[in-house]
Amino acid sequence: MRVQLPEPTADEREHSARVAALIRKEIAAAGGALDFARYMELALYAPGLGYYSAGAAKFGAAGDFVTAPELGAVFARCLAQAIAPAIRATRGDLLEIGPGSGALAAELLAELERLDALPARYLLLERSADLRARQRETLTQRAPQLLARCAWLDVPPDTPWCGALVANEVLDALPVRLFALRDDGVFARAVACDAQGAFVWREVPADAVLREAVGHRLGARAVPRPYCSELCPLLTPWLATVAGGLQRGAAWFIDYGCDRETFYAPQRDQGTLTCHFRHRAHDDPLILPGIQDITAWVDFDALADAARAARFAVGVFQTQAQFLVANGLEAVFVAAQAECGDEGARYRLAQEVKRLMLPGQMGDAFRVMRLDKP
What we know:
This protein is of the alpha/beta class. It folds into 2 domains: 10-56 and 174-234 and 263-293, Rossmann fold (3-Layer(aba) Sandwich); 68-173 and 237-258 and 300-373, Rossmann fold (3-Layer(aba) Sandwich), CATH 3.40.50.12710. It contains 14 helices and 16 strands. The protein has helices spanning 10-29, 36-45, 68-71, 74-90, 103-114, 129-142, 208-218, 235-243, 260-263, 300-309, 320-326, 329-339, 343-357, 362-365, and strands at residues 34-35, 93-97, 122-125, 150-153, 161-168, 177-182, 185-193, 199-205, 227-231, 246-258, 274-277, 280-282, 293-295, 298-299, 313-319, 366-373. Strands 2, 3, 4, 5, 10, 14, 15 and 16 form an 8-stranded mixed β-sheet that branches. Strands 1, 6, 7, 8 and 9 form a 5-stranded antiparallel β-sheet that branches. The protein starts with 9 loop residues before the first helix and ends with a strand.
């Protein structure tokens, strides 16, 4: 997709140059071609440099994209309705993976307090010091009476625990391996440098692990040649790490994605990889390293496989629109309308709900999967 992108600031260009220099060193160490999954990991998570590790604004109007909790309180209030029974049943903790700006944490805590279903602790798994500071500021502003219930973690809990887990728009940022099916076989898409040091694509014969994974994902499905897509090899070990300690309760994963049949449809021959820079979406991850987001759709069948491997039962799988309706959207909307002080606030609320619900926006592009530990 061709998109006219805003011009990065001088500071952004300088930061991106540092990230690019780090990646070039890894490309050289790898013999001239770096698997895309490693490129994506460095661009997003290199300590102190990666997109999610550095301090630039990422969420909301001042950042690169808007998540559902940034739109307003409706999403969080419906999610709280879903979570409350698990908290009441276990009297346990609530763990949020990738808390972003802290908006979801603040609204969830406020609504769970109203529902008399506060968790013993609200755990925020966040490694970025800059994002932690922003989350603490958001919670201090919106739910100061509940800040003492919050605790920040560098790693998932290392002892068994009960309660609920939430991950909103987290899975889409896990590094993915890119592959290409050609008439002469399966290839891994890697990143190399041209004579001027710019990043370019290079295809190398797929290793046995990638060939097996591609065969498993595609099965007997007939897809054209050439055909490019991606898969997330980290999903199973990542889920076992972040959620394996949950002994009783439930986990909710909300992200844009679909089932495997749709994910690897013949017509989707360029995959789902998407980048975001200042609210512009485009498909070139080789530019602006470290200052743009890189994401891929979630194969929810792969998530279900990973869940079963981690001894979860796969529960509800539905569109975000279905999930919100099933968890009290009508009542939440009526209550939110009553809180609106003027016509402008009512208009913004209506626009929020439309964006959350409409087909072609978040309503059907986003899916919700609940995983249960009885």
